[in-house]
Design goal:
The chain is α/β, with parallel strands linked by helices. It has helices at about 5-10, 20-30, 40-55, 70-80, 95-100, 105-110, 110-125, 170-180, and strands at about 35, 60, 85-90, 130-135, 150-155, 160.
Length: about 230
C-alpha cells in the first residue's frame, strides 16, 4: 500500500468494526500481514476475530523467557482451539547469559535495555518480510495509546500497524470473551488487566489506568514495541 494513501484509509476505517478492519488488512496485505499476540485478553479477542475472518494468518508471540506459567499454559490452550499459525520469536540470549553479560535482574535496573533485547529486536526479526502487522492496542489503556488509529505507519519496524480494537473498552473485551467462551489468562481475574513478564507485572489498584501494573514505579509504560 502506498503510504501517501494513509490519511484516506484512516478516515475510511475510522468508525469501522474490528472485523471490517481485519478484513481490509487481509485484502490489502495478503500473506504479508501478521498479528502480534501477547496472549493477553485483547490478544485473545483479536485472535478469535482474525480466525473468524480467515484461518491460517500468522501470529507472532514473543517468548521472553520470563512469562508467567499461566501465560504459557494459555498459549497451549489457544494452539488447541485455533490451530494457530504461531511464530515464536525470542532472543538467543538465555536469562542466565543475560545476567552474565548485563548483570543480574536487568529488568529491574535497566528495563528498557531488557525489553530491547528480549522483545524489540526479536520482533524486528520476526516481522522482516511482512508489510503490516496487527496489535491489540486500545485507546483507553493509557495516554500513550489514546490517539491510536485503525491503521498507522510504524516507523520503528517500517511497516503498517493495524489496530482493530482501538475503540474497544475493557468491558467490551471481557464481554466478548464471555460471549464466545474464549479461554483467557486467569490472572485477569486477579487484578492484572495487562500482563507482561512476571518480574515486571503487578496487579492494578482501583482507579489506576489499565497498564499501571507494568514496570510499576519506573515511569515506564511501554516495552518499546509501540513507542
Amino acid at each position: 500500500m502506498d503510504i501517501q494513501r494513509l490519511p484516506q484509509i484512516q478516515e475510511q476505517l475510522r468508525s469501522s468494526p474490528a472485523e471490517a478492519i481485519v478484513a481490509w488488512a487481509l485484502e490489502t496485505f495478503g500473506e504479508r500481514f501478521a498479528v502480534g499476540t501477547s496472549f493477553g485478553a485483547e490478544a485473545m479477542v483479536l485472535m478469535d476475530i482474525v480466525h473468524r475472518v480467515q484461518k491460517g494468518v500468522p501470529f507472532v508471540f514473543l517468548d521472553t523467557g520470563f512469562h508467567f506459567h499461566d501465560t504459557l499454559a494459555l498459549v497451549e490452550q489457544a494452539r488447541a482451539r485455533y490451530d494457530v499459525n504461531l511464530i515464536v520469536a525470542k532472543t538467543d540470549l538465555t536469562p542466565q547469559q543475560q545476567a552474565e553479560h548485563y548483570g543480574d535482574q536487568l529488568f529491574l535496573h535497566d528495563p528498557d535495555r531488557c525489553c530491547e533485547l528480549r522483545k524489540v529486536e526479536p520482533m524486528r526479526r520476526a516481522l522482516a518480510g511482512f508489510e503490516a502487522w496487527a496489535t491489540g492496542r486500545r485507546s483507553d489503556q493509557n495516554a500513550d495509546r489514546a490517539n491510536a488509529r485503525a491503521v498507522e505507519w510504524d516507523a520503528k519496524f517500517e511497516l503498517f500497524k493495524v489496530n482493530p480494537l482501538k475503540d474497544w473498552s475493557w468491558d467490551d473485551i471481557r464481554s466478548y470473551l464471555a460471549l464466545h467462551e474464549i479461554p483467557y489468562n486467569r490472572l485477569h481475574d486477579m487484578g492484572y488487566p495487562s500482563i507482561g513478564c512476571a518480574p515486571c507485572t503487578q496487579p492494578v489498584k482501583p482507579g489506576q489506568d489499565l497498564r499501571a501494573g507494568r514496570w510499576a514505579g519506573t515511569g515506564k509504560s511501554e516495552c518499546g514495541l509501540h513507542k
